[in-house]
């Protein structure tokens, strides 16, 4: 196959297999996890347009240096996250529980506000139910939400994080602000989850680099503002991939170890229903960046739009459907409101996968 020499190349793992048993040389393992693929969708982009799109079996992939670099990133195991006394392995899908301590979150606003002890107990219950990480946020990032002064955000989250850290929970700090990151880390938090990919606050990247903590970089079309404006895409999957890859390289260049970076395509942030569905269907493409993937679609507007405008509290079934889609495509962290139900669904998924792995060829 003659590949365009000036085109940018992409590989999306496709034709997933539930086991490599009896398929030596036919499948490759994705990110050291529990998914394997038997083919890649090869995409070549030139001048902003796809000039080639073809499905190629793993064994027949051209020996092109550009492609081999992407394959190496796709298959490389993702390093475990060392979060205080806990180690979160990324060789299987894990649950990140959402703990909002805001009065105006789109899903559970006000439920845990102004009562740090009760909020922390909810976080502890999440860990018991199966959450590997509890993601604590003190500012709503829903469309139209009012900005929160960093002092108020700190006041909301620090007492909760302190209690969770004492309990032994792995804690993520969901914020865009450097001062809040500093306060959250000092209180015992372990990882920063920034919907602006460290672009909202000029000091944020330095705080993360100096702390040496893991960080989640999420895509949005206007990260220095609301995260929801703009979003006029020609090819949303390719454009979000390119943006995240560039941002990872920029953050690495500023001193953050690549093994500590996770990426999030930003479902619902400045994206239409069609954009969100394209990203979900194409999630496996993001393994080519070489970082762990976070999927946050729990209870989001997209689910309501596809289920007769169900309100946020009635979107459990859709949220589980998206979570299992993510697991099937090799996502490492699935950020959800409904921890018990999601963890149970993933245990069933894992049981099926384990059964396939010990299967024997007949005869």
What does it look like?
The chain is α/β, with parallel strands linked by helices and 363 residues long. It folds into 2 domains: 8-75, no CATH class; 81-352, Dihydropteroate synthase-like (TIM Barrel), CATH 3.20.20.20. The chain has 10 helices and 14 strands. It has helices at residues 65-75, 116-129, 150-167, 178-186, 204-211, 236-253, 273-281, 301-305, 316-328, 339-357; strands spanning 8-17, 28-29, 36-46, 49-57, 81-83, 86-88, 94-100, 131-137, 171-174, 191-194, 215-218, 261-264, 292-295, 333-336. The strands form 3 sheets. It has an 8-stranded parallel barrel with strand order 7-8-9-10-11-12-13-14, surrounded by 6 helices. Strands 1, 2, 3 and 4 form a 4-stranded antiparallel β-sheet that branches. A two-stranded antiparallel sheet has the order 5-6. The chain is globular and about 60 Å long. It starts with 7 loop residues before the first strand and ends in a 6-residue tail after the last helix. The model has no long low-confidence stretch (mean pLDDT 94).
Question: How are the secondary structure elements laid out?
Answer:
Layout lengths: L7 E10 L10 E2 L6 E11 L2 E9 L7 H11 L5 E3 L2 E3 L5 E7 L15 H14 L1 E7 L12 H18 L3 E4 L3 H9 L4 E4 L9 H8 L3 E4 L17 H18 L7 E4 L8 H9 L10 E4 L5 H5 L10 H13 L4 E4 L2 H19 L6
Parallel strand pairs: 7-8, 7-14, 8-9, 9-10, 10-11, 11-12, 12-13, 13-14
Antiparallel strand pairs: 1-3, 2-3, 3-4, 5-6
Helix pairs in contact: 2-3, 3-4, 4-5, 9-10
Rg, Å, rounded = 20 Å
Assembly level: single chain
Shape by Cα distribution: globular
Number of strands: 14
CATH fold annotation of the largest domain: TIM Barrel
Indicate the proportion of strand residues: 15-25%
Look at the structure and give the mean pLDDT: 94
CATH superfamily of the largest domain: Dihydropteroate synthase-like
At the first level of CATH, what is the class of the largest domain?
Alpha Beta
What gap, in angstroms, lies between the N and C termini? 38 Å
Q: Which residue ranges are poorly predicted, with pLDDT under 50 across at least 5 consecutive positions?
A: none
How many domain modules? 2
Structural class: alpha/beta
Major sheet summary line: 8 strands, parallel, barrel
Q: What percent of residues adopt helix (DSSP H or I)?
A: 25-40%
Number of continuous helical runs = 10
Mind telling me which CATH architecture of the largest domain this is? Alpha-Beta Barrel
Query: Going across the major beta sheet, what is the strand order?
Result: 7-8-9-10-11-12-13-14
């Amino acid at each position: 196959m003659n590949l365009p020499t000036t085109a940018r190349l992409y590989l999306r793992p496709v034709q997933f297999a539930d086991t490599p048993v009896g398929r030596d040389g036919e499948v490759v393992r994705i990110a050291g996890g529990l998914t394997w693929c038997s083919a890649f969708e090869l995409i070549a982009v030139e001048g902003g347009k796809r000039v080639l799109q073809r499905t190629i079996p793993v064994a027949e992939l051209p020996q092109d240096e550009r492609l081999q670099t992407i394959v190496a990133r796709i298959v490389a195991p993702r390093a475990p996250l060392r979060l205080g006394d806990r180690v979160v392995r990324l060789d299987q899908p894990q649950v990140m529980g959402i703990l909002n301590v805001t009065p105006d979150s789109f899903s559970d606003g006000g439920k845990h506000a102004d009562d740090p002890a009760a909020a922390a107990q909810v976080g502890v219950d999440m860990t018991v139910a199966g959450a590997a990480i509890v993601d604590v946020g003190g500012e709503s990032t829903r469309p139209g939400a009012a900005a929160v002064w960093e002092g108020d955000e700190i006041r909301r989250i620090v007492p909760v994080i302190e209690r969770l850290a004492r309990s032994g929970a792995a804690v993520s700090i969901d914020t865009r602000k450097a001062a809040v990151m500093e306060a959250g880390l000092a209180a015992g938090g372990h990882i920063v989850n920034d919907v602006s990919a460290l672009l909202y606050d000029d000091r944020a990247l330095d705080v993360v680099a100096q702390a040496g903590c893991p960080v989640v970089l999420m895509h949005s079309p206007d990260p220095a503002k609301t995260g929801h404006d703009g979003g006029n895409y020609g090819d949303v999957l390719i454009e979000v991939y390119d943006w995240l890859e560039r941002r990872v390289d920029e953050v690495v260049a500023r001193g953050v170890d690549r093994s500590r970076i996770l990426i999030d395509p930003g479902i619902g942030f400045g994206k239409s229903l069609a954009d969100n569905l394209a990203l979900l269907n194409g999630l496996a493409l993001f393994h080519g960046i070489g970082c762990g993937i976070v999927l946050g679609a729990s209870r989001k507007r997209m689910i309501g739009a596809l289920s007769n405008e169900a309100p946020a509290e009635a979107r459990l079934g859709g949220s589980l459907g998206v979570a299992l889609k993510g697991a099937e495509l090799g996502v490492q962290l699935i950020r959800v409101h409904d921890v018990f139900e999601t963890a149970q669904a993933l245990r069933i998924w894992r049981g099926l996968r384990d059964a396939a792995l010990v299967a024997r060829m007949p005869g």
